[in-house]
Design brief:
The complex is a heterodimer. Chain A is an alpha+beta fold. Chain A contains 11 helices and 13 strands. Helices cover 37% and strands 22% of the residues of chain A. In chain A, strand 2, helix 2 and strand 3 form a beta-alpha-beta unit. The termini of chain A are far apart. In chain B, helix 2 crosses helix 5. In chain B, a hairpin with a 2-residue loop joins strand 3 and strand 4. Chain B is built from 5 helices and 5 strands; from the N terminus they run E-E-H-E-E-E-H-H-H-H. Chain B is of the alpha+beta class. Classes of the chains: A alpha+beta, B alpha+beta. Chains A and B meet through helix 2 and helix 5 of A and strand 4 and helix 3 of B. Bound molecules: flavin-adenine dinucleotide and FE2/S2 (inorganic) cluster (FES) (2 copies).
């Protein structure tokens, strides 16, 4: 196995151009498990943990640009106020040891339908910044996931960062699993209310070939909510929102759960999430 | 091709040439010769291999040794001071926080990180802080008690040490 260790971003992009087959490692919490289980035998790996740029975040034109190498621990500690949905999801990832090394960039790289960062990134309309030696492009996260464990990055590209607008309303994340800690989601649901634009955004995890939004549920409930008076939506509207969210999923039966269970759990999570978020909006959001 | 790895382990410097695919946990056990860090799984689930890298708890089976180049590592062997057990080690002993002991080094390193972050955790925070470690013997009740006891002695000891240092110098 060849080991590449770029110390700058420019060097990393040049190495990726020269060795498109090189497997990047950020926290290694997916890559090392694959190698240890002999599911993957890369000829060349490229350690990105020395690239300082990847571990930085900054505000840029009203968006927060977070380097792909920022760990979950730092997202929780440093960005929880600006991206509460992602921070909530980050708290459920693995354990302290995993959150100290694991990164959102790595979660996007793996592009598992069960990746916990994905639903809140969908619900925040995040952008993923991809870079190669020949240039940089920003892809809406809704277009980033192209299939199970497949994403829009080309062979010569690396994930540089993701960009998120600081929360403009309450955000929630919920996850169903077989135990409370260190669990791959059976299914998960993220919701973000955008109070200024009167929009509702969603993200569904582990219930389809890719993470998915539920656009019909979003459109439906945006029209039902009493944004000015802040009265609670009717029970019928909440129930319909849950049904539409579950209908957006494309679940399968697998070892973690059945498709029917996933749909049911999603409708419950969607209804509860809306309740929690609306309550926060009523009592607190300016 | 071999790569250089230079690390500080428990305050001592080590430098070796290693294959890039050598895991950090294997490096510590087989090259440095510190076998207190255990391996309990091949899926990074169990936490037996927990060590501190630059003060942060990590599973040493999720890193290649070459990635640790230049870092400062602490393993279970770095916890005791000579014959005097670290307060967390003493508390595991006193509270029967172990049976076979296989998971114990990992639990102690995870607990040390937890208490560093949060010196006075609630029971819930202790359970959350140790969520990355599995024990097949104890049922966790005594492990939680041990961390509670350690938290008490450590807040006491730190205050005591400060006084001694102030008085002694
Ligand atoms: C015990 C345990 C528990 C876990 N629990 C959870 C959980 O609860 N929820 C969850 O979602 N995940 C979980 N995971 C999986 C893993 O921790 C996450 O997917 C994490 O986000 C991966 O990040 P990483 O930095 O460790 O990625 P790595 O393992 O370093 O990389 C993952 C993938 O992304 C690629 N990659 C990394 N960085 C880049 C980059 N900058 N550009 C291009 N490609 C890149 C790599 O080549 C690889 O394909 C768990 C893993 C373990 C071992
Ligand atoms: S050996 Fe590292 S987590 Fe089990
Ligand atoms: S004491 Fe035996 S595994 Fe924990």
């Amino acid at each position: 196995m060849n080991f590449l260790q770029p110390s700058t971003w420019a060097e990393a992009l040049a190495m990726k151009a020269a060795h498109p087959e090189a497997l990047p490692i950020a926290g290694g919490t997916d890559v090392l498990v694959e190698i240890n289980l002999d599911h993957n035998r890369p000829d060349t790996v490229m350690d990105l943990t020395r690239v300082a740029d990847l571990a930085e975040w900054a505000t840029e034109d009203g968006l927060v640009r977070v380097g792909a190498g920022v760990t979950y621990t730092r997202i929780i500690d440093e960005l929880g106020d600006r991206m509460p949905g992602l921070a909530m999801a980050s708290r459920t990832v693995g354990s302290p040891q995993i959150r100290n090394r694991g990164t959102v960039g790595g979660n996007l790289g793996t592009a598992s339908p069960a990746g916990d960062a994905h639903p809140p990134l969908l619900a925040s309309d995040a952008l993923v910044e991809l870079a190669s030696a020949s240039g940089t492009r920003r892809v809406p996260v809704r277009d980033f996931f192209t299939g199970p464990k497949r994403n829009a990055a080309r062979k010569d590209e690396l994930i540089a960062a993701f960009l998120i607008e600081p929360a403009t309303g309450p955000q929630t994340f919920s996850k169903v699993g077989t135990r409370n800690a260190m669990v791959i989601a059976v299914c998960s649901f993220a919701l973000a209310l955008d109070a200024g634009r009167r929009r509702v955004r969603t993200g569904i995890g582990s219930a389809g070939p890719t993470p998915l939004p539920a656009p019909e549920a979003e459109q439906f409930i945006e029209g039902e909510l009493d944004w000015d008076g802040r009265q609670p939506p009717s029970d019928a509207a909440v129930a319909r929102f849950g049904e539409l969210a579950a209908a957006a999923a494309k679940p399968i039966d697998d070892v973690r759960g059945t498709a029917a269970y996933r749909r049911h759990a999603l409708s419950v999570m969607a209804r509860r999430s809306l309740g929690w978020a609306w309550q926060d909006y009523r009592v607190g959001w300016a | 091709m071999k790569h250089k790895v230079a690390v500080t382990v428990n305050g001592h410097k080590h430098e070796h040439e290693v294959e890039p695919r050598l895991l950090l946990v294997h490096y510590l056990r087989d090259v440095v010769g510190l076998t207190g860090t255990h391996i309990g799984c091949d899926t990074s689930q169990c936490g037996a291999c927990t060590i501190h890298v630059d003060g942060k708890a990590v599973k040493s089976c999720t890193m290649f040794a070459v990635q640790a180049d230049g870092r400062s590592l602490t393993t279970i062997e770095g916890m005791a001071k000579g014959d005097e057990l670290h307060p967390i080690q003493q508390a595991f002993w006193d509270e029967h926080g172990l049976q076979c002991g296989y998971c114990t080094p990992g639990f102690i390193m995870a607990a040390a990180y937890l208490l560093e972050q949060n010196p006075n955790p609630t029971e819930d925070e202790i359970r959350k802080g140790l969520e990355g470690n599995l024990c097949r013997c104890t049922g966790y009740v005594n492990i939680v008690k041990a961390v509670q006891t350690a938290a008490k002695t450590m807040s006491g000891t730190t205050a005591g040490k400060t006084q001694v240092a102030a008085g002694g110098n």
